[in-house]
Fold these 3 entries.
Entry 1:
Amino acid sequence: MDRFWRGWRLILAGIGVAMLAILTGCVSQPLPEEGGLESAVPLTNTYWKLQEVAGDRVSETGAASEAHLILRDDGVANGFGGCNAFRGEYEVIDHRNLVFSRMGSTRRACQGEGDLEQALFEAMKNTAGVQMDGYRLQLLDADGDELAEFEAINQP
């Protein structure tokens, strides 16, 4: 009889782990009705093209026009800073706070794009929140001030 109950306990534990994985996956994409994030596109799996960082508009010419960010469903953040590719992790907390961690990048030496890239990396380092509106994503600091602005490119 102990063997019977042990088998059921394993099955129930497996179901519990699966439910936890499903619930954890839901956290990576804030729901508009719960978090007040109103957007025409999802936060995750969207190509977010950098438009502005540290108060400076991004030029539409050269490699900087391709600076972008993609937040994956699995908590991985990756993109391109104008010179170097970057990758790390992110977490959405309480459907409004967004933090990046374990960020790293390639180390190519590029001319002219270093300032933009460093400003983007600094913005990501200081990000504490996120604001979405339509096709726009803003990274915010702890005081709610804008650090960087992105526009969704793969719009439906």
Note: The beta strands are 38-39, 48-53, 56-57, 68-71, 76-80, 85-93, 97-105, 129-134, 136-140, 146-152.
Entry 2:
Amino acid sequence: METAPSTLAATQLLLLLAVLIPAIFFLITQQNTLKAVLPENRLMHPGLVWLQLIPLFNYIWQFIVITRIAGSIRRQLASRHADSIFGADAAIADGTSRRPTQGIGIAYATLFTLLVPINLFQDVAGRPNDSLLLGLVALGNMVCWIIYWVQLVQFKNKLKRTLAIG
């Protein structure tokens, strides 16, 4: 039984919205996290996160955004300790010597990027698109994305608290 073109279009529109709405909220979180960093500690302008909406370009740009957000958070946390009497010891104790959110962010972006070649390979090989590998990569991507998103919110809130105190 074939689906009517109007039903198919409505289904595709709903699917697009189901993907686009969370993506927009995620980009707002990335932008607000960068806004919580003082301008002198930012490695990129907060508005540049929206370039991730550009198809194909987003596969490269997401890695740049993740790295620059992590570096910006690290610089902000480190600058907080620059004036303290403890100096570098306080920064190390706070964990600012690492790049917060970068590890899980890169994992999410890598898995997201891998979905394309896995899907293409299955099409070329004539395999069904519902393979176990595709499902596992998609699930791993979703889990890493949620963890990354939660970490961004936590650091954004931490940065806002420290700016309010200082």
Note: The chain is about 75% helix and 0% strand.
Entry 3:
Amino acid sequence: MPTFVCNFCGGDHGTTTCNETVSYQGQEDCAAEVLDSMLDFLGFELSSKQWEQVRENHDNDQPVEMLAYIVEHFSDSFNDDEIKKYFAPVTKDDGKIYNASRKHGSCFEFAYKALLRGVGEELDDGELVLVHGFVLTNSTEYTGHAWLETDNHAIDCGAMTKEFDLRDKKAFYKHAKVKSPKKFTRSEAANKFIELEYFGPWVEVPDDLPMCSAWSK
């Protein structure tokens, strides 16, 4: 299970570092405290033999892995739908959890959240939209990317630095050699996220486009 994707908020970080307020058993608390509460609950629900099996595979410094293992192997032994929901078993190629992570970069999450916050609306330059497309990453190969646009500007959303780079749109397209851009309004992006349950990419790789080795179709 790719634990660098948060089980609680879907962000590009481990669950133990999540700063979101999480709801569990009718109470709201930080993610780390919720992890402890879940494990305390399961301490009374699983048998000593089951816990032996858990600890053969994971130690106390791996609470996320522990919970995922418990849900995968012992879900019939306890009644807590919230734990089962947060730590439902996933595969790397299910198109949701893994693809929302470092496999394709966090620019998709960063750009989506920036759109919802209205970043760039102060430009007063037409409707602000989210764009998914492909940009040149070296002299010959492309990678997927997400950014925001207005009529005349592109707001590049850095995946690593979490900073915005305001560019002339025509210059950005020319410099990045943009291919197959697809635009989403705020409502379209929100509906897409609800439908697919991951931040992107939401576009298909063109068959004739040379992609960098780190990208997987």
Note: Residues 91-104 have pLDDT under 50 and may be disordered.
